[in-house]
Design goal:
The protein has five helices and four strands; from the N terminus they run αβαβαββαα. By secondary structure, the chain is α+β, with helices and mostly antiparallel strands. The chain has a single domain, classed as Glutaredoxin, CATH 3.40.30. GO terms for molecular function: 2 iron, 2 sulfur cluster binding; disulfide oxidoreductase activity; metal ion binding.
């Protein structure tokens, strides 16, 4: 399986996926940490993938999305954005709306 196939499989088989530096329990950059805090605050279940474990994954996700930075959030197979976009959507209530429109269960 190529890295692009691995990424595609992860994005399509999980409702919410965060490609990040570190893990949800131990983010290793401030931007990844902010997105984790937002997702945890909303109460949405998600899969975190640590791009620091693999240069192939770190470069592959940038090519997959055609987006230069990490973290990257995907909802139901759709690229949502990085830290700034996720934060702005959260503050405007748009992230919560997107999740509910896509049928993703949120606890909050």
């Amino acid at each position: 399986m190529s890295i692009a196939e691995f990424i595609d499989n992860e994005v399509k088989s999980n409702d919410v996926v965060l490609f990040m530096k570190g893990t949800p329990q131990f983010p290793q950059c401030g931007f990844s940490g902010q997105v984790v805090q937002i997702l945890d605050h909303i109460g949405v279940g998600y899969k975190g993938l640590n791009v620091l474990e693999s240069a192939e994954l770190r470069n592959g996700i940038k090519e997959y999305s055609n987006w230069p930075t990490i973290p990257q959030l995907y909802v139901k197979g759709e690229f949502v954005g990085g830290c700034d976009i996720v934060r702005e959507m959260f503050q405007a209530g748009e992230l919560q709306q997107l999740l509910s429109e896509k049928g993703v269960v949120v606890a909050a």
